[in-house]
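Hey, resending since the last one bounced:
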Amino acid sequence: MTKILMVCLGNICRSPLAEGILKSKLPNSKFKIDSAGTGNYHIGDLPDQRSIKVAKKYGLDITDQRGRQFSVNDFDDYDLIYVMDESNFENVIKLARNAHDIAKVDYILNEIYPNQNHSVPDPYTGGIQGFENTYKMLDEACEQIANKLLYNS
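The structure tokens again:
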């Protein structure tokens, strides 16, 4: 089973959307997808209501997710770790114990724009359109991830 972790800051906006989107594209019998935040602000919380609303618009229910904080154990538990931005990348890499841990981490948008390290903008302080834009970016990246894992492995 391939295990994939999506990481953002608070684990209520971007990473829950990425988790939900990728889960919808891959069979759960072969893939485990989860999400976490680098911060501890929203441990145990539901995703942001705007993330829930946008996901629902596209037929996804992410209300079973709860915020949790990324930990060093995640390097042992996951094969691939996708981060949303530079801050997430730096915070995750700080916890890495070795090159093997670091090799698991990548920016999610590198799936669309290889080696460019583009960030998924954090929609938290904006309106619903930011969440819509975030969803579309993540959907495109998750489509690439799913295709790679299903057809190119």
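The helical segments are 14-25, 49-57, 74-77, 86-95, 99-103, 128-151.

Sorry for the duplicate.
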